[in-house]
């Protein structure tokens, strides 16, 4: 079992920033990532509100932050964390492929996942492809008719992107019928916190977010939370990065 001062779950902007702060404070730290580093911003091609960069893509931004964390000494490993358990002298973190890590402190930075279509709508979609990312899959439907399900900011983003590629972009609510001639369905009906792996160790609110204030302390001593999976009002890159810095600093204080 590998042992670290701090294990960070999730390599989005919150987790990677936490890693930078943890290693710069002289602690050993590993970031465990279940899919691909970068999290939800990775498919965004035009970020305009990251201070210091008028226009930057998600990939570019994350590449720089990951390189910075690694150069400073943080480790990153591809592990989907299934469970975190309180041990006598810290915490044990288990991956879904039997990986095991030990830590004196844990930072939870799992962000959010896209909310899935209802079973009824999946039935309505039939054999037609369902995607949760226009930037990833839009090009596959060049010149075709597609539908975007959802009406929030993310749906607007998807519609704008697909209009540059597809011959027709319909837009419907999550309880409307899918147009028969739509050849692919793009879903943007909100996001849900990815907090399943932490539900036995920290308090989670009715919507699934980990309960914590601006100090990023959770209900479990030694476990901190950063980024979009925390209870907060503004879920953005800068607030996720800020949480990463706060959570790591609090974890370092806890360790000393
Ligand atoms: C389409 C879109 C456009 C956006 N545009 C902007 C913008 O222009 N400006 C802005 O400021 N914000 C934007 N946002 C919001 C911004 O992306 C988020 O606020 C920010 O990425 C949150 O970072 P995070 O690190 O908290 O979580 P995430 O980015 O969600 O990262 C969490 C990471 O944890 C991993 N993970 C989850 N569960 C586990 C597990 N059990 N084990 C291991 N790893 C796990 C995930 O795979 C993921 O990589 C946008 C969001 C979307 C969806």
Biggest sheet character = 7 strands, mixed
Query: Could you give the distance between the termini?
Result: 23 Å
The chain-level mean pLDDT equals: 96
Alpha plus pi helix count: 6
CATH architecture of the largest domain: 3-Layer(bba) Sandwich
User: What is the total tally of β strands?
Assistant: 13
Q: How much is the radius of gyration in Å?
A: 19 Å
Please estimate the helix content. 25-40%
In short:
The chain is α/β, with parallel strands linked by helices and about 260 residues long.
Write the layout of secondary structure elements.
Layout: E1 2-9, H1 13-24, E2 29-33, H2 58-71, E3 75-78, E4 81-87, E5 90-95, E6 100-108, E7 112-114, H3 119-125, E8 130-131, H4 134-137, E9 145-149, H5 153-163, E10 168-172, E11 184-187, E12 191-193, E13 223-225, H6 237-255
Parallel strand pairs: 1-2, 1-6, 2-3, 6-13, 8-11, 9-10, 9-11
Antiparallel strand pairs: 4-5, 5-6, 7-12
Helix pairs in contact: 1-2, 1-6
Bound molecules: flavin-adenine dinucleotide.
Residues 9-15, 32-35, 39-41, 44, 47, 49, 80-81, 109-112, 154, 157, 194, 197, 227-228, 235-238, 240 line the site of flavin-adenine dinucleotide.
